[in-house]
Structures are given as C-alpha cells and as structure tokens.
Automatic annotation (TrEMBL):
Origin: domain of life: Bacteria
Name the record gives this protein: Solute-binding protein
InterPro entries according to UniProt: ABC-Tungstate_binding, PBP_domain
Ranges where the PBP domain occurs: 31-254
PANTHER family: EXTRACELLULAR TUNGSTATE BINDING PROTEIN
C-alpha cells in the first residue's frame, strides 16, 4: 500500500481542518439538542420548570430554554417562530392558535385553579365561593384591585369574570392594571392591601404576603387548564420538530406526568396532571 508523506505544515493544516470539522459537528449537535419553549410566568415563577426540566434533560439529553411571558405574549412568540414549543393556559386562545395554523396540535398537560387574594380584613366583603359576586362587591366598594393587564391567561380569565358581572366597564375606582407578571402583581397587591386574581401555584410560592390571604376558592369557573403545542414547521421551517415533539411527548407521558405531580411546596401539590383528558 502506498503511504502518503505530508510535510509538517500540511500535517498542521490537516489537523486544523479536522479540529474545525469536529467543532462544527459538536456545535451543530449541541444546537440540535436544545429547544426554546415559550411559556407563562406561572410555570416559571412557581418553580415548576426548575423541578421538571432537569428530569427531562436527563431522560432525553435535550436542554430547554424558557421564555416566560403572559400567555398572549407567549403565543405571539410562537406566531413569530421565535420558539419551538408553546406551553400556556388559555384554552380558547390555544385552540385559535392551532386553527390559524401556527400550532400543530394542542395537548392538555395539567391543571390547577385561580384564587382571589385579598387583605385579611376583606373591606369589600368578597370572601366566599362565587367569583362573579365577589368582583361585584369589589367594584361596589371601590376597593383596590390589581389586574395583571398583560394578556396573560390569568388576565383573560379575570376579564371573563368581570364580563360576567354585567357591570360593563365599571370595575370601581380602585381598579388598576400593572401590565406585569403574576409575581409583580402580587407584590403590588401586598404593598397596597389590594385584591388580585392569582393562579394558586404562584401564590403558594410567593413569600411577600403582607397580610394577604386566599379569600375565595372552589368556584368551578376558577379551573385553570394548561396546554402545550408544537409551533407549526410549515410556517417556520427552522422549528426543531423532533426535539420539540420529544418534549411534548415526555410531558404527557407517565414519567412527565409523575414529575409534574411530584412538585410541591410545603407538602402542597401545585399542578395536577391530566394529559389525555
């Protein structure tokens, strides 16, 4: 067999080319093994992602980078193609996202509930189990009420409840929108001694309560469902279909559902898996 002799310079060049090729392959592989998930502030601020994502990475090797926004903004990120997967909690908006061709299919993943938070003294006498009646009382008393005002799933639910009061645009003089996430809205409510609609998971992980407590829960209308969707690669060809679908498949699998169910704060479970409902 003929042996090819290379000069020292040629050998160095060959090694450099090989190293460059190996680096390109390694970085390409790493890029393929990560996805962007556009999700809600509640999944992030409650600590759920910090709990389940290491489990998913261990099982799949795929790293998940989370963009946490209100649901409306998270869906907009998906529409622009700036995420591979959208994981949010506004079923009406999610179905519209799929119907308009921005998402492939919607999968239910888990649920919890909304709660009305307010000062322990409850000056509006909103305490009870009827969210619509409670908001009527808040408006009539002109009590301080902090709305997220950010097109989030929580904000969308809150607006539905206000609409059900039949009071039109009248929400009382104490009503204000912060245009912020759930944590900042709770902080504002704590500083003002105000009422606020919150998802239970973020409330349970919230520490700056300053005399606030849960005043209303248990109304069936407070049910809070979460769903996940792959961004449609026909709209955005760069979507990482295999890796994104792997994340969705894991979330709705026995392992993913068990991971969600195992997340608790002080012994209280924050989310309840219900894939396949």
């Amino acid at each position: 067999m003929m042996k090819i002799q290379l000069s020292q310079g040629a050998e160095r060049l060959t090694r450099q080319v090989l190293l460059a090729l190996l680096f390109a392959l390694a970085t390409g592989f790493a890029a393929a093994q990560s996805i962007v998930v556009s999700s809600t502030t509640s999944t992030e601020q409650s600590g759920l992602f910090g709990h389940i994502l290491p489990m998913f990475k261990k099982a799949s090797g795929i790293e998940v980078r989370v963009v946490a926004l209100g649901t409306g903004q998270a869906l907009d990120v998906g529409r622009r193609g700036d995420a591979d997967v959208v994981f949010v909690h506004d079923e009406v908006a999610e179905k519209r996202f799929v119907e308009e061709g921005f998402g492939v299919e919607r999968f239910p993943v888990m649920y919890n509930d909304f709660v009305l938070i307010g000062p322990a003294a409850d000056p509006a006498q909103a305490r009870g189990q009827d969210i619509v009646e409670a908001l009527r009382k808040v408006a009539a008393a002109n009590a301080d009420f902090v709305s997220r005002g950010d097109r989030s799933g929580t904000h969308a639910a809150e607006l539905r409840f206000w609409d059900a009061t039949g009071s039109g645009e009248t929400k009382g003089t104490g009503y204000r929108e912060c245009g912020c996430g759930m944590g900042p809205a709770l902080n504002m409510a704590a500083s003002l001694g105000a009422y606020v609609l919150a998802d239970r998971a973020t409330w349970l992980s919230f520490r700056n309560r300053e005399g606030l407590e849960v005043l209303l829960e248990g109304d069936n209308r407070l049910f809070n469902q979460y769903g996940v969707m792959l961004v449609n690669p026909e709209r955005h060809t760069h979507v990482k279909v295999a890796e994104g679908q792997a994340f969705i498949d894991w979330l709705v699998s026995e392992a993913g559902q068990a991971a969600i169910a195992s997340y608790a704060i002080e012994g209280e479970q924050l989310f309840f898996p219900n894939a396949g409902r």
